[in-house]
Amino acid sequence: MTRPALLILIAGPSAAGKTHFSKELKTSLVQSGIAAVVIGSDDYYREHWTPNSIYGFDTVDAIDRDALIGDVQALLERRLKHRRRYDMSTRAVSWESLKTTCDVVLLEGAYGPQLLMNHLHPDLLIYVSAFLPIRVMRRLRRDVRERERSVPSVLRQMLLNMIPGERRYIHPLQRSADLVISDVPQGLLQAVQRIEVLIRQSQAPAP
Fold this sequence. Notes:
- This protein has helices spanning 18-31, 65-76, 113-116, 132-146, 151-176, 184-203, and strands spanning 6-11, 36-40, 82-86, 93-97, 104-108, 124-128, 179-181.
- It is α/β, with parallel strands linked by helices.
- The longest helix has 26 residues, at 151-176.
């Protein structure tokens, strides 16, 4: 019987570097002969969802929980055929073909890892951290350039929605994390070593 892929959750606050770290980790794993695929929680925002009156989009309620859990479960079992995509500008959902199989699923996102913690029992929880001023600059650059938003709207969302949402939903994950990453090169080395051990353990014959 084929063993399911490993599930690695990559959590952390907005603009901490989760997406960058996930891509670098995938590259490092592939170089070590371990096939990996990255799934972004941002692709599981609810289509045309009305923002929460307090947290806006910075809440787990904005994520389509059933779709996320179902797709990750299918990916772990190597039977997911289509990858979900979410357009931040139009708030519309689309799909694209997924033709890869993997040994490791890297699920990254600010909101999403929380929803999987008690359902799919991740093999490793990684928390990516960065100082708030650095994150503010990164988010401004990203949202203005890539999501066509104005500087005032981004700052307003961060102050009114992002920071309160992080305090409630994201910061508690740091206490549960197996690895807390603030330095990418060192964090990559630690993560790859941990995943290699988990791979060996999963491949060991049952007693």
